[in-house]
């Protein structure tokens, strides 16, 4: 009987225009996210300095008197418009004076007009240029030294933190996003039955109430599985996904407690509005439990959870039996708890027909 409920839900979902709109919207959103993340990855791979502020070169001007060009050449023309000038005839409100470079120390003076808010842009750009020129001078001094240097070979193991952040955490979060995009299906399937007053006729059928909840949840999980497969194929265009089959199975297994928790909230809710608020809060809690351990793993290389397991699979790290068993056990245990509570609530007539008891009263009855 549970499979009958599942087939009914799948057929009605794929015939729904709302589902078709949501599906197309998700695909478009995914392409935009891939485009943005690819740009971030490209910026992190480049050795050039990245300017995150918009170009103000047409509005911010700076007079520069630098005979050696040691600092002038390091100024970014996209940030400020540079005007070479003499000390006696400055044209702009901001002036940079640099002594001729004959060795260290190198003196430079910056004069700003504090009546204009653009002074901060000039100040930040000059400070960045001074830092870049200082590095260049230091490299020149080191290169010119004739002392014999110890032959030291530096090996970097793994990736730098920015690349690790993009290649592992961001891709893992991209892969797990579809699990949180089908809450409306569960609301419409469970809470909608109570709102439309069709739940009574469904309960009157010779079907156990547990089969109704489990059948509706299974239908959503199957639809999630199809969406996850399409989602991963599209992500494959912009990012490399090693161990794709294992990652897909982990994501599919993660969908069970997510749908179970959502079903629990939907069963207890009176209407669409209450269910929407409840599921939003529930998803914030779930995402916190998924992402916070993952961020701790990046900094400390330890932790448990499905997102951490996906990160390890993406980075081709060694996966131990403990990692697999612990993650699967957490997902199975949480699924049993959430579905058990959802079925327990759905079997109570006061939850379906009213008046609905409060949370504290339910806890006393459960304990």
UniProtKB/TrEMBL annotation:
Pfam families: ABC2_membrane_3. It comes from the Archaea. Its main location: membrane. GO terms for cellular component: membrane. Residues 135-292 form the ABC-2 type transporter transmembrane domain. The chain crosses the membrane at residues 20-41, 169-187, 218-239, 245-268, 280-299, 319-346. GO terms for molecular function: ABC-type transporter activity. It is a multi-pass membrane protein. It is found in: Membrane. Keywords: Membrane, Transmembrane, Transmembrane helix. The keyword Transmembrane applies. This is ABC transporter permease. It comes from Methanothermobacter tenebrarum.
